[in-house]
Amino acid sequence: MTGPETSGNYSDMHLNISQQMKMSQQMKLAPRMIQSMEILQLNMMALNERIEQEMVENVTLEMVDKEREQTPATEADAATAKTDDTPDLKKDVEERELVTESDKSNESDFERLLEISSDWPEDNVSFGGAQPSANQVADSMDRQHDAMANTLARPQSIHEYLLEQFSFNSVEEPQRQFGEYLIQHLDHNGRLQSLLAEVCQQFNRVYDCNVTNEQAEDVLRMIQQLDPPGVGARDHSEMLLLQITDNMPFHEVMRVLVRDHLEDIAFNRLPVIQKATGYSIDMIKVGIEQIQTLNPYPGRGFEQRPVQRITPDLALEKDDKGNYVVRLLDEYVPELRISPRYIRMLQENPTAETREWIKKKVESAKWLIDSIEQRYSTVKKVAQQIIDHQKEFLEKGPEFIAPLKMQQIADRVGVHVTTVSRAVDEKWIQTPRGLFPLKRFFGGGTQTASGEEVAWDTIRIKLQELIDGEDKAKPLSDDALVEALSKQGLKLARRTITKYRKQMNIPSSRQRREY
Questions:
Q1: Dist CA 152 CA 306 (whole Å)
Q2: Which helix (H) or strand (E) holds 454?
Q3: Over the stretch 375-403, which tens digit does the pLDDT of each residue have?
Q4: CB 299 within 8 A of CB 228
């Protein structure tokens, strides 16, 4: 029986193979443009690290020794010839490169460079596959030693600290092994997020053991006796209860409040607690004050990241007319140039492989130098436009910060908004009012009743002032805050006030009330 699916005429089927030309536009970023964007986004410290990395990978790059550059050079040292293969290096040779006698001290560099083989990797900066000399090995070992010496030791983790203490307990197998397994299941706050029975079941399955739930409870209690107090807790209440000891004042009141009334404390429902416990309001307030001395996150003191030192990229100075002028702080960034030694190597007609390798390295070096100079120019222009816009902030204080968007700065500088974003990313500026990230000066705003633009930062400052000055026995509700701001010319919706209050971690009026 033939169905309709199989009774078709195969002559109607055609296999059409053809070639078509289609025009389309695609944006492809050249490597040089990609490098420029990457360099622009780096802050001062990251730029220094990038330069150090590039100097390791590119032997044609070198730092300018400004003290040595100031010493007079002989006519033979200053003379450099131009070859047809390096027409764009004339400016570097004539204006930036001064060849001194010390540059001639390593005459074997060129000889080793001529030994480059055809299969030498492009990014290999060693010479011709030759074995490193004793001095090169010593220099490499010194650099490794310095890097190790300057590396901060990793702080001890909460798990390592607990395992070290637990090892001193006399525990039989497999409870000892389960205790170590259980410690590894604590989070970075020292809290057990998983159910104890599930951890026990998983341990028995993985290690083919038979630890009972009762034994697991015993092991957990042993862990809960370790330092810091509160580790091994299964919830917030247990973490606080583990820290309350009998020698603490008001320990009974604290236990009752933590065990039965944490939610009432969070919502400041003191009359509810008074009715349930019979304690006076004053006794409840004293108990809450004692609870606030406990540590709800006992494991947070471990694995803290080292404090990052902030190095400003820019500083402000006032000119004779009283205007703020942006100055680049580039003294921490080394000045780079193309090594005259490799320029001379090109002029001495090396082999084709050597010439091609040097030209690629020199081109890469010039790209880097140009990208750094472009970074300086863009960052300075963007920062100057930002400061010109926020002059009132610098003169009068944070309350007078003006609304500002990155697109506004991009239009004034004549660049794309993404360029502005990269230019201000992680860049800091030293001002008369302190050290600020450039992103601090950006922000949206709203219009007052008179049509004046007001930044959100200004609204937050005024909101904080109203709450700081309120009567804590009768704190201002969100509706009252809306009315108070409206009297100052700031007409905002209640939901806007509620949103900003929560962002500022300000409790509700009920929670702010003091009895």
A1: 8
A2: strand 453-455
A3: 999 999 999 999 999 998 888 888 888 88
A4: yes
- Backbone φ and ψ for 493, nearest 5 degrees, come out as -75, 155
Domain boundaries of the chain, sorted by first residue = 32-100+108-113+310-388, 445-512
Tens digits of residue pLDDT in 194-251: 999 999 999 999 989 999 999 999 999 999 999 999 999 999 999 999 999 999 999 9
> Residue 155 phi/psi, 5° resolution?
-65, 155
308 burial type by CB count under 10 A (0-12 exposed, 13-18 middle, 19+ buried): exposed
Coil, strand or helix at 431: strand
Say how far residue 261 (Cα) sits from the centre of its chain: 40
Residues composing the chain: 515
From 222, 190, 192, 183, select the one nearest 297 (Cα to Cα): 190
Residue 408 identity:
Q
Measure the CA–CA gap between 255 and 205, rounded to whole angstroms.
Answer: 38
Bridge-based pairing state of the strands 453-455 and 324-328 = unpaired
Helix (H) or strand (E) holding 337: strand 336-338
Report the CATH fold assignment for 445-512. Arc Repressor Mutant, subunit A (1.10.10)
Neighbours of 438 (CB within 10 A): 22
